[in-house]
Amino acid sequence: KNITLDHATAIILSCRLDNKHSHLKSLQVTWKKGNETIRHNTTENSWNIQLMVSDNSKLGSYSCTLKGEEEFSAIFHLQVPKIEGREKPIVTYEGDTAIMICKSLGYTPIAWTWYMTNGSKQIAINDTLLPDKYVITRISANVTHLKILKLTKEDDGVYCCEAAFELGKSQGKTKLKVLSLMAPLRPFLAVVAEVVILVTIIFIYEMYSKKKEKYAEGEKEFDQIEQL
Amino acid sequence: MQAKHSNPPDGGYGWVVVVSAFMVMGLTAAVLKTFGLFFVEIQQHFDELASTTSWITSVTIAIFHLGAPAASSLCVRYTHRAVVITGGLLAFSGMALGFLGLNMVWMYATTGFLQGLGIAFSWTPAISIVSHYFSKKRALANAIASAGECAFAFTFGPFFQWLISQYGWKGALLIIGGIQLNICVCGVLMRPLASSCILEASHSETETPPGNGATRMDKEDKSPITHKTFNWMLVRRPEFILYAIFGILAAMSFFVPPLFLVPLSYSLGIDESWTASLLSILAMVDFAGRLLCGWYANLHITKTVHLLTMTITLISTSLMLLPLANNYLSLAIFTGFYGFFFGTTVAVHITVLADVVGMPDFDSGLGLFMLIRSTGGFMGPPLAGLIVDVAGDYRAGFYVAGATLVLSAGFLVTLDQFQQRKERGNQTNTKQEKSTLSYPSLHLLKLQ
Which of B207, B221, B191 minimizes the C-alpha distance to B125? Predict the structure, then answer.
């Protein structure tokens, strides 16, 4: 089960056994964080565990395991809220403006930061340094916009928006593709050329068949005159 | 020369025109249907609301309907070919200028207004010229042409998505604009029928619905050129009014099911990909319905008005039954039925218009019909939305749509009765004329 936490809190995780295995209820359950076993105070019921989630280190995967003839286990993932970027890349052109949107689902981040990924490094985007290139706006509590003006080929790449929560940071990704204006122009000109060629062919064919008709009618009249 | 052109080709070059109209349908209506894929992209790029972005399509549809009568009156003065080529250029310019994407208002003006005008100028003459080229096989020709919309819509979905992923929405618009330029190619193929004035005069003698025959022939003998202007007098004809009211009611219900099918599907717990498959099913059975109905109508077993009444009744039945669906399979089956009968209706309703109005006034009739029908198209979705909000369930929308269609079928039946009565009245008139004619000849014999 996935559990999303955005601020420090106390939480109780409980595991429950299916009815068909209720004969195993009397056995004890081991709780683990990752691979390490947690030694917890023996409460009446080891099937529940209370955790104080106070900082990032407390987040992770917790599992309850029942060892008997068969081993049963269940896993809880305690995590920071997910950030929604954009799955499909944004395709733009040189000189154009691009707006990238990041949304936090349900939880309000403390702060937003935008990064551009260059290879494996992430470079933070400073909009105060380059105000006529980047504009970062926080539209609402959960939504941030990055507007990039006067796009060039160098702006092509993956952009990350990072939301800072009390318990940690979370990232969303958007891919930006910058094309030159020639890219769509080539297929466009190809189609236009095809249209012009077809229209010319059809016109010529029609002129030709009309001439043939007139010629044929001329011959008919000639024959009629001859008969007379 | 006259004898050669006294009948519409009903084949031959007509089939080239049908293919060309098929393409035009696809390049206009299908592009409009699939434009929704651009919504999110445009909305995010300009940082606007979803409702503001959706006005683009509203503008396109509005201009399409308002432009239809303008387009058909231009057809009457200039040729169909010229108007279609103009439409192609307009649609292309709309999309190509949309590539510049300056701001939202720019998008309204380009992908909204220009595109809508282009679609109106391409679609209306394309539909009309098919009816001009055929008489006996008209139903089949119209059906094949209208099937273009489904065929293209089916492929444009994934194709547009791929274009957007490769070139972004701006580049995709530019390329689609170029593709729409092919409308001009189709337009060039639409050869105008020679000496259409004389052609339409002889048309009216063979085809106008009974009751109009006597008065029309007088008019045409006197001035064969008068009917080349847009005929507003159509609104005075009761059959046209009946058919127009049918059009309004049908349009009110036609836009509702596609709108509510997706939310209804979600509310039943069906996920995104399965819902998308429902829409694909709809497109496929729509295509099949159009072709099958065209083939059947071509057999001339039933009168087109009767056929249309049957298809409308069948759609309303499927819509009334659709809310009974409670899982994917039943929803898919009912959607299939609805889509199939929707296709049959679309395939045949233009042919019925031609029968109601007669070929000389067909262009004017088509334009007027589209204009009047648009009111239904505008009222329908908001009204249905209101009823759904009040009832709290999407099923209510389907019941309303079904009920509106039943009402519209009533008008069709009235129209049919009216036409039949006129027919009977005319038959008795001609019988009386024949008997009076025989008397003078007897007189002559007596005198001799």
Answer: B191
